[in-house]
């Protein structure tokens, strides 16, 4: 076997077969694992990209909605202030040149500014273009001609947009509504809420859980108005940064929302934008952070794949070794068979297996046992043949000697045969006498058969009568038991006499008590109660007499109960005696009758056998008489045959010499066969 090898101890291994099965199995497992891993990685990358884009888009929408909610709330506030009657009246008066004090409006604006906790840069009111009140105590009141919000609010009735605060130089978001003169319907002033974009957007840009995700608020021109990095505010301009940031602004102005990729500060980023009415919310993250998640997933998948492959390799190694080890043992046994060594037993663990290896092991064990039996038989028969050849050689030698002596014995046989003739005549006379004796034996056996038939009939009668008696005893026992049970039940009625006598005793006692009471009442009545006293006395005597009689009845009843119980016990003993003794004795008689019957049958068989033997003996004696006559004839013929035997023995002597040579050749062949068989180990 080309794949087999032997280790240093001479043990056969199946290295080539193990490698083939192991590598094939690993290849079959590795290919699906690689394919599944590649498909999984591609699917995960695609899902992560889609999830990231969706998350960025969702964040951009949420931030834009939060910003819009803040702006909408401020729009409602500014609109309410612009339409406040007090504010409107003062603004109209100031617009018309009246010297109306504006302290009330300053206090109003200051109060609003303080309550928003830094959300407002300033909150001021103008009449025409001239400021008349602010939230800083009038410190920023000035002529607003030329400012970005003035013309739009007087032309369109509202201004929403970004600007740079002339006070702090920081970006602000202006929400401006005009004040309308109710008399003329003319815009005569405005209420301006300059919100600090840093305060408004601080929560928006800093409320991201993922540290790698950032939020920017840009104006329509691409200038950064809010950022986690304060240095980027009003300094980073997407419109001039590079071509990729310019594309972001162009896409944001052309679409309400979308996904974009750009480069910022030398870092490639991916982001999502949302465009509201006046600002752009951009949520982005570095591509490296995005790819780090993908790389982490890929690494986990690869590690999982490698672990699965290693586990599969270990399991496959265990399974393959479970096949290779028994095969190695079988190969070792088969090579031993090839070297004529059948002495090693097939291991029991191979024979006891339930798989194909177990079938192969049992087949090898069966083959080994068969070969052992054949070789054992060959060895045994070879030894037997060798022994027979040696014995034959010795016997042929003695045969030659015997043949020499046969010639001398033939002469003696002739004389002996004459004596035999005289003896046969005497035997013939004795045979006639024996035949007469056998005839007498046959007559006696016929008479014995008649006697045995009578014994057989008597044994049958004994058995039949015993069975009838046994059945009758059983029936009588059953009837006695039933009648006894019935009598015992009826005897229980005696107990009712006790109950009745007890009741009578109680009545007599009460009667006696009544008699005593009557005597007492009669004594009280005097002469009138004498007659009644006599009656009471008689009743008392009657009660005493009844009690005495009842006592006697109870005594008699108790004796009757005792007698009935004794009768029941004796009857039960009688029934028990019948069941245990009488019926068993009848059964013994049945068994005895059966035994007599069986013995008579045996005697019948014996007599018939003797009769048949006597007849056979008579026939044999007749045959023997005839044979004796034939022996006489044979003796005469034997005399002439002895002469022929003498001649034949000479021929046999020559033939025995040839047989001795053949036996020597057979002995040599047997020796060679034994040497070949001895090379086999069983």
Features:
682 residues; flat; five-stranded antiparallel sheet; alpha+beta; 73% helix; Helix Hairpins; 12 helices
Structure characterization notes:
- The protein has 682 residues and is of the alpha+beta class.
- It has a domain at 449-638: Helix Hairpins, CATH 1.10.287.
- It is 73% helix and 11% strand.
- The chain is built from 12 helices and 12 strands.
- It has helices spanning 15-82, 85-95, 103-115, 150-156, 197-206, 238-241, 243-254, 287-338, 348-351, 356-491, 494-525, 530-678; strands at residues 5-6, 12-13, 120-127, 130-134, 159-164, 171-180, 187-196, 214-219, 224-226, 257-264, 267-275, 279-286.
- A 5-stranded antiparallel β-sheet has the order 4-3-7-6-5, sandwiched between helices.
- Strand 11 and strand 12 form a beta hairpin.
- Helix 10 packs antiparallel against helix 12.
- The radius of gyration is 71 Å and the shape is flat.
- The model is unreliable at 8-13 (pLDDT under 50).
Brief overview, please?
The chain is α+β, with helices and mostly antiparallel strands and 682 residues long. The protein is 73% helix and 11% strand. It has a domain at 449-638: Methyl-accepting chemotaxis protein (Helix Hairpins, Orthogonal Bundle).
């Amino acid at each position: 076997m080309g794949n087999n090898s032997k280790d240093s101890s001479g043990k056969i291994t199946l290295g080539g077969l193990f490698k083939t099965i192991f590598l094939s199995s690993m290849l079959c497992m590795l290919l699906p694992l690689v394919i599944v891993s590649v498909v999984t990685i591609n699917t995960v990358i695609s899902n992560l990209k889609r999830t990231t884009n969706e998350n960025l888009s969702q964040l951009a929408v949420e931030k834009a909605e939060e910003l819009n909610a803040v702006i909408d709330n401020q729009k409602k506030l500014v609109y309410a202030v612009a339409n406040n009657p007090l504010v409107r009246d003062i603004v109209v008066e100031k617009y018309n040149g009246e010297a109306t004090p504006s302290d009330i409006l300053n206090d109003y604006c200051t109060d609003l500014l303080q309550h928003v906790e830094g959300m407002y840069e300033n909150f001021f009111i103008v009449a025409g273009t001239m400021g008349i009140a602010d939230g800083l105590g009038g410190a920023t009141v000035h002529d607003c001609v030329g400012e970005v919000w003035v013309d739009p609010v007087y032309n369109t009735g509202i201004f929403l947009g970004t600007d740079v605060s002339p006070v702090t130089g920081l970006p602000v978001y202006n929400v401006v509504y005009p004040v309308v003169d109710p008399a003329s319907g003319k815009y005569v002033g405005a209420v301006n809420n300059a919100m600090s974009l840093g305060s408004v957007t601080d929560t928006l840009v800093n409320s991201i859980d993922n540290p790698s995700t950032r939020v920017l608020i840009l104006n329509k021109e691409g200038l950064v108005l809010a950022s986690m990095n304060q240095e980027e505010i009003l300094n980073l301009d997407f419109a001039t940064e590079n071509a990729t940031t310019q594309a972001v602004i162009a896409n944001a102005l052309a679409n309400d929302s979308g996904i974009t990729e750009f480069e910022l500060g030398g870092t490639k980023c991916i982001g999502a934008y949302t465009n509201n009415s006046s600002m752009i919310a951009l949520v982005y993250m570095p591509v490296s952070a995005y790819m780090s998640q993908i790389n982490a997933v890929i690494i986990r998948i690869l590690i999982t794949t490698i672990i699965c492959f290693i586990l599969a390799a270990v399991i496959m190694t265990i399974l393959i070794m479970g096949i290779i080890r028994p095969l190695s043992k079988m190969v070792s046994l088969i090579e031993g068979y090839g070297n004529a060594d059948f002495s090693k037993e097939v291991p029991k663990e191979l024979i006891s297996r339930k798989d194909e290896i177990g079938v192969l092991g049992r087949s090898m064990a069966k083959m080994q046992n068969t070969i052992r039996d054949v070789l054992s038989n060959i060895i045994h028969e070879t030894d037997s043949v060798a022994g027979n050849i040696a014995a034959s050689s010795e016997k042929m030698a003695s045969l030659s000697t015997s043949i020499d002596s046969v010639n001398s014995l033939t002469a003696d046989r002739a004389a002996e045969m004459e004596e035999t003739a005289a003896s046969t005549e005497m035997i013939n006379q004795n045979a006639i006498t024996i035949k007469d004796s056998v005839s007498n034996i046959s007559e006696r056996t016929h008479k014995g058969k008649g006697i045995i038939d009578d014994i057989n009939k008597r044994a049958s009668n004994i058995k039949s009568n015993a069975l009838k008696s046994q059945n009758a005893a059983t029936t009588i026992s059953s009837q006695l038991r039933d009648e006894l049970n019935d009598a015992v039940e009826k005897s229980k009625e005696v107990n009712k006499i006790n109950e009745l006598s007890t009741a009578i005793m109680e009545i007599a006692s009460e009667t006696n008590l009544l008699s005593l009471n009557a005597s007492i009442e009669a004594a009280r009545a005097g002469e009138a109660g004498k007659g009644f006293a006599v009656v009471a006395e008689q009743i008392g005597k009657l009660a005493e007499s009844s009690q005495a009689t009842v006592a006697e009845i109870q005594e008699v009843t108790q004796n009757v109960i005792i007698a009935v119980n004794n009768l029941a016990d004796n009857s039960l003993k009688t029934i028990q005696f019948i069941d245990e003794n009488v019926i068993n004795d009848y059964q013994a008689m049945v068994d005895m009758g059966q035994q007599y019957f069986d013995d008579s049958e045996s005697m019948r068989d014996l007599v018939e056998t003797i009769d048949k033997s006597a007849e056979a003996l008579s026939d044999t004696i007749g045959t023997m008489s005839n044979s004796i006559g034939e022996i006489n004839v044979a003796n005469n013929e034997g005399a002439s045959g002895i002469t022929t035997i003498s001649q034949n023995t000479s021929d046999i002597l020559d033939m025995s010499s040839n047989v001795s040579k053949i036996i020597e050749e057979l002995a040599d062949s047997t020796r060679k066969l034994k040497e070949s068989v001895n090379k086999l180990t069983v």
